[in-house]
Amino acid sequence: MKMTLARILNAQSVAVIGASRQETKRGYQAVRTLVEEKFEGPIYPVNPKEKTVFGLPCYESIHAIDGPVDLALVVTPAATIPSILEQCGRKGVAGAVVIAAGFGETGDSGRSLEAQMVDVARRHGLRIVGPNTNGLINVHSGLNLVGFRQPPKGNIALLSQSGNMALSLFTEAQVKSRKGFSCYVGVGNEADIRFHEYLEYFRDDPRTSAILIYVEGMRDGRAFLQQAYQTSRTKPIVLLKSGRSVTGRRSVGSHTGALAGISEVAITAFRRAGITVVENSDELFPAIETLSSLPVVRNNRVALLADGGGHATITSDLLSEAGLQLPELHEKTQAKLREILPDTASVRNPVDVAGGADANPVVLAECARIILQDHQVDGLLLVGLFGGYSLRFSPSLAFAEEDAAHRMGKLVRETNKPIVCHSLYDYARPHALDLLRYYDIPVFDSLEIASQAMVLLAEYGEYLQSYQAQTSFELQPGSKAKKRGEEILARARRDGRRALLEVEARELCELHKIPLVTAELVHSEDEAVAAAAAHGEQGSVLKVVSRDILHKSDAGCVKLNLKTEDEVRAAYRSIQDSARAYRPDVTIDGMLVSPMLKGIVEVIVGTKIDDQFGPVIMFGIGGVMVEVLRDVSYRVLPISARSAKQMIDEIRSVKLLNGFRGEPAADKKAVQKLLLAVASLVESYPQIAEMDLNPVLLHEEGCTVVDVRILLGEGNGNHHNGNHHNDNHHNHNHHD
Amino acid sequence: MKMTLARILNAQSVAVIGASRQETKRGYQAVRTLVEEKFEGPIYPVNPKEKTVFGLPCYESIHAIDGPVDLALVVTPAATIPSILEQCGRKGVAGAVVIAAGFGETGDSGRSLEAQMVDVARRHGLRIVGPNTNGLINVHSGLNLVGFRQPPKGNIALLSQSGNMALSLFTEAQVKSRKGFSCYVGVGNEADIRFHEYLEYFRDDPRTSAILIYVEGMRDGRAFLQQAYQTSRTKPIVLLKSGRSVTGRRSVGSHTGALAGISEVAITAFRRAGITVVENSDELFPAIETLSSLPVVRNNRVALLADGGGHATITSDLLSEAGLQLPELHEKTQAKLREILPDTASVRNPVDVAGGADANPVVLAECARIILQDHQVDGLLLVGLFGGYSLRFSPSLAFAEEDAAHRMGKLVRETNKPIVCHSLYDYARPHALDLLRYYDIPVFDSLEIASQAMVLLAEYGEYLQSYQAQTSFELQPGSKAKKRGEEILARARRDGRRALLEVEARELCELHKIPLVTAELVHSEDEAVAAAAAHGEQGSVLKVVSRDILHKSDAGCVKLNLKTEDEVRAAYRSIQDSARAYRPDVTIDGMLVSPMLKGIVEVIVGTKIDDQFGPVIMFGIGGVMVEVLRDVSYRVLPISARSAKQMIDEIRSVKLLNGFRGEPAADKKAVQKLLLAVASLVESYPQIAEMDLNPVLLHEEGCTVVDVRILLGEGNGNHHNGNHHNDNHHNHNHHD
């Protein structure tokens, strides 16, 4: 498969099917571009009606070509594609780039055409780029199937689901940087080749050292995560995911046909795979420019060097709010700075030279050296006027600025600490700023973007530092399944029940060491009284066991806080009455008697199936707050112990677990263990669509699951491939 | 006062005190700039050691000048300032611009020097700009006291607490727009002239039609709000507030000496005064450019016109997430678009012409016309490639693009609906984009900034539409005070108590119609039992009344849920014991017996004194959540009924009040009334520093305040002027 991708992206010969003599047609422009961009191999225009196109001999069909053809660019309409791919397949073409729209993005008939096309390709071992793409470019070989001329050459691979975003990025690279691209692929509908396959190719491509992705929706999120995880440690990956809003998805639907609908899940999952996710299209190119150029920031600590207060204040806010530390500089560092700066300067961090470089901008490079020699500092953001001292004061200062640029460039190499530069004067294209870029120091005219670049260097640095070799996004269904567990699920399936009975769900949990509240199954009032007596002052909870009643609380079939025999009896009868009122022919399989427990705090744990990523696990504070404030964390399965810990710590209300207002601290280790147990259970039984532990009571030692609900998938087997639309919401009733 | 400001900002004559012949000195540069910028009036260099400066005769002292002097630019060191201002005052100078740093921003000695300087000025009726400023500019008269040459001329007034931010904004205006400035003032430390005074001047300045503010901290927030409110309806005000983070404030402290510490209060208060607050320095100039150029968006509804999917998707996300509506277009509109666009185009909104303008960019202007004629649409954002069709396809398309620009420009005037443009090709400076700017259509190369411009037009539109003539930020202390209320507060003051006794606080509340839970003051166990009996099954609450115990819960002096006589007696004794344990010589003034009430939901209402804005009121959900998640809303006093309603609706957990999960809806009108009553009470008695109603129970009808705590200010009177550092946190113990 990788071999095929190499034959596509490094094609040695190209056929243009649908080549044309009309200059406004894609079939003409494609041939012209290949010729003008000096594609190294033979170009074969194919069109039965033409003799030549752009001076090249034109072939009647792909079969008429003598030599081998690696790649076919197909610019004919959607309806013709299956038969054309059939011909390409017979010819032994490795890949076809299908430009036409009118497939999966247009509805049922388009989807069926897409399936037909893929079917033909599979039969011949032919791979498809697109459809609904503007093509691909190998910048180094001149294999340019896109209108854009002379894209800047470099080491960034670009995967995009939007042609005009690709155009934007090419333009931005050309106008604002010295960086360029190794390859571009317009991924289109992903009918055949998926994001993760391109990623795998670029991981091994020696001409690519960083990967930039614009995605609106992807078809195989899990495989992508796995591949990204294996790539991002050596080659930074930057991704912008759009199509978050309803209107955004309307737009996506109308032009890529992708399954959109980003979830909170996606962002966390991408980050866990080492991907740098940006939320702002302005930051996309700056992010890859920075990450592909500079050493990372270690330990999250940076310094700020400014000339004037406003820039320093704004940038301090930005860096701090993003979580970076701006440590005060060591007193020796401060003393050294004092020596070369005027009294009005501030030397703590942010360092404000306060005009101290006006007469000699080399002072800035000296400050940079002093600051980066401080062991407390792992990166430097230079903001303000650098590059413009010659414009502001005297043209002769340009030489000093160039000197400073050389010094700073070398400083990055010596210290292996990054410098990022903001300059108000970038618009004037001073040579000193070009020099910084020559040394791979990016220069931005926006304080926000420059700060964000620093933040991303720190985040990527943190990722690399905490990189865990054992992370995996591959599921191992069945790995820890138990025979008895499979039996329970099979029985429910046989009975046509999607919901397990509470006793079944409890048994499954016990098999997997999930700590449940004790519950005695009783079948009479007297048995209930006897069971409740054991709990004494603590009180008891009584609830129905019935396959006919899913939401027990709503049906009036849960009674709390029962302390006396009378209360237990009354509750028993009341539940029976409620159950019959709920459904006259109800089958009552008994009642469960549990102690009435209290915890320091209540939490919930749940799992569901995400369209793009398969099974995910959720953690949140219990009670109404989880619904009102959505203060929850998510992870794609499987999870590591570290992920489980992070899930707990990243909810805003984690304070409630840490010993809040005189309460003892809750046992977070126990919660972590619970998350791992639930994740492993759901991974082991792919039949499970949804699991809901609510509430879970946390104690000083341990935790107790009070109620558990398990739903099976609608199909008859493995839902982990996704594609289920599961609209069930978690129900957060207590003791439900 | 306004007359004086006019004499400063429109000075007809300027003295430069500290003028110099040395070219690197400020005293030389200032004279040179005035001459080169063609200042209209006489320029008087003052320096006893020089005969001429930059060819002008130099004066020994300001007294040696014959004619009147409106303005003195003082560039001498801090220590010399008081005596120089003394001389200026005697000469009858209207204002002095004090450049020197070394005043309030440097600590105690600086603060005392600043006070001395202000004192001198006050005696002579002389006003001070600064100190710690880089000067001011009247762009139209050539009164340029700043190094920056030929700032772009226009109708924007700029107030900035940072010289390099001013430099950034001048540069940005010059490089990226056709806009310019009427005036610039470096506000500096605000030792004398405050932000609101400049604002008042610009409100009436015929050459100013929009105001741009960069502020790090301001000295009289309330007066600023009042003035902004009176200005913003006719002249848009855009403000960037920085110094939010700890490090940011460290930076502020070191260079402006301003009271920083932005609070959540500030942002809401600014918005209520009609100010457009931006949080991103990249958006600052684009915001004022847009608001000073275009009609606002009415009704929050806009359309998006793109050429290609990616830009459309990203922009849809941005607009939707900011709360704008992108309504589907009327079917007639869609039909008209269909007529001129290819089949692959999307005509719903976002409209994606999908290459339909490649051959003729005028199609975009036609689309714009069709879209803006739709009554559902009140503004248009054009994103993508406009301005670049000639570059991409054929130079001759430039004429069509210019035609389209003329049409769109006229369209804005005809429909009075705004168009904002994003273009990938702005870097190439195509004439078509310059034409758009000529028609006051701003062009941005960032999707984020273009979208944000549209959002701000909608927000300002909404503000203007909902503008309320009765809004005021002026306090009326005493206006609704009652004699009995004053007596209560005076007694506490006489007794040296900062906290009112609960019975006093309750009486004050009752005077102002704040609905309290009933509470009977008892002095014996038997009285307590009798009082509790009245509450029957509901149960009672018993708490101590003692001037010695502020935090009653923490002292074990509150007992809840007492249902039987035995429980009441036991509670009574237990409280007595706890009180004595807490403080052996405790004075117990009795106990309060209240019914144990339940509400649909508990909320809290509080007031405190903000450093910059004086008294503010706070609303939030009760319980631990308010502390954990800080889900609260704030308003500066006084508040209107509308503000009170918004305070309730803007907390995230407002859902809990709206009939959540089968609960009845809570009486929000009653909460609104309560907020108004509390605000009016606190406004009326400026002695009150802090008031805390916690919890307040909400019912289906009405609400009940269960506990109230009132603290007096530390001084002996009116704290509403701010300047108190009040570090008391709200204490959210229930029944405390």
What does the secondary structure layout of this molecule look like, with pairings?
2 copies of one chain form a homodimer.
Chain A: H1 2-9, E1 14-17, H2 26-36, E2 43-46, E3 52-53, E4 56-57, E5 71-74, H3 81-91, E6 95-98, H4 108-124, E7 127-129, E8 136-138, E9 143-144, E10 153-160, H5 163-176, E11 181-186, H6 195-204, E12 210-215, H7 221-231, E13 237-241, H8 246-255, H9 264-272, E14 276-278, H10 284-291, E15 303-306, H11 309-321, H12 331-340, E16 346-347, E17 351-352, H13 362-372, E18 380-383, H14 389-392, H15 397-415, E19 419-422, H16 431-438, E20 443-444, H17 447-465, H18 483-494, H19 502-511, E21 520-522, H20 525-533, E22 540-545, E23 558-562, H21 565-582, E24 590-595, E25 601-610, E26 614-621, H22 624-629, E27 632-636, H23 641-649, H24 668-684, E28 688-698, E29 703-705, E30 708-712
Parallel strand pairs in A: 1-2, 1-5, 5-6, 6-7, 10-11, 10-12, 12-13, 13-14, 15-17, 15-18, 18-19, 19-20
Antiparallel strand pairs in A: 3-4, 8-9, 8-11, 16-17, 21-24, 22-23, 22-24, 25-26, 25-28, 26-27, 28-29, 28-30
Helix pairs in contact in A: 3-4, 6-7, 7-9, 10-17, 11-17, 12-13, 13-15, 15-16, 20-21, 23-24
What would your notes on this structure say?
- 2 copies of one chain form a homodimer.
- Chain A has 736 residues and is an alpha/beta fold.
- Chain A has 5 domains: 1-146, NAD(P)-binding Rossmann-like Domain (Rossmann fold, 3-Layer(aba) Sandwich), CATH 3.40.50; 151-292, 3-Layer(aba) Sandwich (Rossmann fold); 303-465, Succinyl-CoA synthetase domains (Rossmann fold), CATH 3.40.50; 476-515 and 598-736, D-amino Acid Aminotransferase, Chain A, domain 1; 518-596, Dna Ligase, domain 1 (2-Layer Sandwich), CATH 3.30.1490.20.
- Chain A is built from 24 helices and 30 strands.
- In chain A, the strands form 6 sheets. Chain A has a 7-stranded mixed β-sheet with strand order 9-8-11-10-12-13-14, with helices on both faces. Chain A has a 6-stranded mixed β-sheet with strand order 16-17-15-18-19-20, with helices on both faces.
- In chain A, strand 25 and strand 26 (614-621) form a beta hairpin.
